[in-house]
Amino acid sequence: MDLSGYRITISNVKDCPCFQAQDQFDCSGNAVVVSADTHFCMDFAESLIFGLSNISKSKAMAMEFKCASGGSGCKGQVAYRIEKVEEQINHFEDETSDQNVDAVTRLLLSLPMFKSFDQRSIDRLLSYFQFEHIYDLGFKSYRKGDIILQKGVPGSHLYIIVAGRVEVIDEDDNTITYLSSGEVFGEMSLISGNPVSASVRVDIPTTVFRLDSKDFNRVLPKFPELHTYFARLLTQRLTRSNRERTQDLSSGMSGKLSEMPPDELLQTLNITQKNGVLSFNLADGPAKIFFKDGEMIYSEYGKLTGIPAVAKIIQNQTGKFSFTPKLPPEASEMKPLGNFMGILMNALREMDESMSDD
Questions:
Q1: Are residues 235 and 302 located together in one domain of the fold?
Q2: How many domains does the chain divide into?
Q3: Count of other CB atoms within 10 angstroms of residue 174
Q4: Strand ranges inside the chain, DSSP E
Q5: What is the pLDDT of residues 46-103, one digit of tens each?
Q6: Which domain does 291 fall in, by range?
């Protein structure tokens, strides 16, 4: 791989005996040019090989990486950036921004999340962002064992895996599932406003790009394609991770909303096409929702009924719930309140807007 024109800049150092912040090394051909008195530990060398390989394959203008302590026994931590240096590409100076946009566009169109997008849609999506370098969209690399998301912490980013693999783990360190290139995580916390429900740990060296919550919430309402994608993704995730939970619901179940929030309850019943009554004991009084073949056909909460009652119920993150797999006789004539995912997504968006206003 030809790395000519790339420069390595040490951006942050902690307890590292080899480097200082702002140390720089240039690349020539397939080699890194360093002075005779420069010391590279094995951990940094391994990290650098991974970083140079990633930036070469992606043809990115710049990417961020980290080197942490590992097998060599070094306890230092180093953050560094690999980027095309201006003096090596000054004949492209007027085209730098276009090149970065083209690189991001090619990457996005290759990911399942943007499979339904055409060139015009991608151009419109990128118009919501102002960036001069490709890493402004949040490219970040992690090493095996790094924790990217911690259960119980409020979500701050949407993560899309560019290369590598992560594992979703429970509180007992058991693996729930694996996610690999092209897959997305962190979206549920951003959509619902709830804390992260499971930790995500790097299984093999992984590169992601992150979209922060403000950008995510700004673009999501403007692209129906993303609504469709996340509705399908949430369905798949709940089917996979809540299988045991849904088996319990078949015979009736009760619990706390702090352990299973209302939006997850509703989606679980919808996915498994349940019939029955979901009852709530909330701070402002009782509430209930009727389900027929997984569709909501009736709801009430205080003086509210129908869709407004559903939206109000979803805003509750504390309280108790119980599910009875049997409908009252009057439910036989009731019709669905509307499109399930549409009702849920609108309710979650209203809750997010209400929290932002507060």
A1: no
A2: 3
A3: 9
A4: 6-14, 24-28, 31-33, 62-67, 77-84, 139-142, 147-149, 157-169, 175-180, 184-185, 199-212, 253-256, 276-282, 285-292, 295-301, 304-305, 320-324
A5: 777 777 777 777 666 777 777 765 555 677 788 888 887 644 333 333 444 455 567 6
A6: 250-357
